[in-house]
UniProtKB/TrEMBL annotation:
<dbReference type="GO" id="GO:0005685">
    <property type="term" value="C:U1 snRNP"/>
</dbReference>
<dbReference type="GO" id="GO:0071004">
    <property type="term" value="C:U2-type prespliceosome"/>
</dbReference>
<dbReference type="InterPro" id="IPR036517">
    <property type="entry name" value="FF_domain_sf"/>
</dbReference>
<dbReference type="Pfam" id="PF01846">
    <property type="entry name" value="FF"/>
</dbReference>
<feature type="domain" description="FF">
    <location>
        <begin position="10"/>
        <end position="72"/>
    </location>
</feature>
<dbReference type="InterPro" id="IPR002713">
    <property type="entry name" value="FF_domain"/>
</dbReference>
<dbReference type="GO" id="GO:0045292">
    <property type="term" value="P:mRNA cis splicing, via spliceosome"/>
</dbReference>
<dbReference type="InterPro" id="IPR039726">
    <property type="entry name" value="Prp40-like"/>
</dbReference>
<keyword id="KW-0175">Coiled coil</keyword>
<dbReference type="Pfam" id="PF25432">
    <property type="entry name" value="FF_PRPF40A"/>
</dbReference>
<feature type="coiled-coil region">
    <location>
        <begin position="126"/>
        <end position="153"/>
    </location>
</feature>
<protein>
    <submittedName>
        <fullName>FF domain protein</fullName>
    </submittedName>
</protein>
<dbReference type="GO" id="GO:0003723">
    <property type="term" value="F:RNA binding"/>
</dbReference>
Length: 220
């Protein structure tokens, strides 16, 4: 009975030592993270005597303990993400589309509590924040395109209301002075764009069309 208890204590110590080894790999520059694969780290793990000690006993295998450890790190993601967001808020940092991971990791690890964040979870959080920034940028681009289409449409309505009627022979200089104080004129960001819309309006009016080129193309 005493011999059995002694063996169990010894086996438990071997497992604890191996778990400490995994912790060392985790703290050692993020060599072991929530994203780590057994196949990638096997050469490092198998070269340590604590791995060999695990092979001399029954029960949990080194692979079992590795999986348990990595799973615990994955479950830590929510907590790590909150810590990261707190750090970024404190530093007034915002992840943009062009923010590099190296830059991001420096922000996080510059805070003491950021040193405890798992590097795999840090990478996952970074990817998530960059995707969010990309999504916001795409939405901003779509909104800008919608705004320009609205402005172009209002500008065409303004041209359509002119007397005499704007036709293929109408010069921009003949129209500009009559509409330059109108909102639909002022919101266009450049004179070059106003002239572009004006020329397109003349070209499409000549064909008996009153929609913008972009709309016409969509209908084809």
């Amino acid at each position: 009975m005493l011999q059995e208890r002694r063996i169990k204590r010894q086996e438990r110590k071997v497992r604890e030592d191996f778990t400490k080894f995994l912790q060392e790999l985790h703290k050692k520059g993020g060599e072991l993270t929530s994203m780590s694969l057994w196949s990638s780290l096997y050469p490092v793990i198998s070269s340590d005597p604590r791995f060999d000690a695990m092979l001399t006993q029954d029960g949990s295998t080194p692979l079992d303990l590795f999986k348990f450890y990595v799973e615990d790190l994955k479950e830590q993601y929510g907590q790590d993400r909150r810590v990261i967001k707190d750090i970024l808020n404190d530093q007034k940092k915002v992840v943009q589309v062009d923010t590099t991971y190296e830059e991001f990791s420096k922000w996080v690890t510059s805070a003491e509590k950021g040193m405890l964040v798992d590097h795999g979870n840090m990478k996952l959080c970074y990817n998530s924040l960059v995707e969010k920034a990309e999504s916001k940028e795409r939405e901003a681009e779509r909104e800008e395109a919608r705004k320009k289409r609205r402005q172009e449409s209002e500008f065409r309505h303004l041209l359509r209301a002119q007397q005499p009627v704007v036709d293929a022979n109408t010069e921009w200089s003949a129209v500009r002075g009559k509409i330059e104080k109108e909102k639909a004129f002022l919101v266009i960001e450049s004179e070059e764009l106003r002239i572009k819309y004006f020329e397109e309006y003349k070209r499409f009016s000549q064909r008996g069309l009153h929609t913008s080129p972009s709309v016409s193309k969509k209908k084809k």
